Amino acid sequence: MSGFNIGFVIFPGITQLDFTGPFEVLSRLNTPPSLSAESRFSDAQTHVVAKAM
Fold first, then answer.
1. Is residue 1 over pLDDT 70?
2. Cα–Cα distance measured from residue 21 to residue 14, given in angstroms and rounded to the nearest whole number
3. What is the mean predicted confidence (pLDDT) over 2-21?
């Protein structure tokens, strides 16, 4: 796999829960399941995108 990118778009009206829940789960994709196993998504990256700071 050459790369796996996940993007979260922040916009007016989004609730904290709508963002935080999926972000917490998907941002851990590159974490290996154990010390003896390699992650299936070792090159996964999570990005937060917004129109302005």
1. no
2. 12
3. 89
Q: What is the pTM of this model?
A: 0.70
> Which residues are bridge partners to 46 per DSSP?
6
DSSP assignment string, the chain: ---EEEEEE--TT--HHHHHHHHHHHTTTTS-SSTTS--TTTTEEEEEE-S--
Quick one: 12 exposed, middle or buried, by C-beta within 10 A (0-12, 13-18, 19+)? exposed
Residue 14 pLDDT more than 60? Answer: yes
User: Which tokens sit at 19?
Assistant: 């963002």
Q: Are 4 and 39 in contact (CB under 8 A)?
A: no
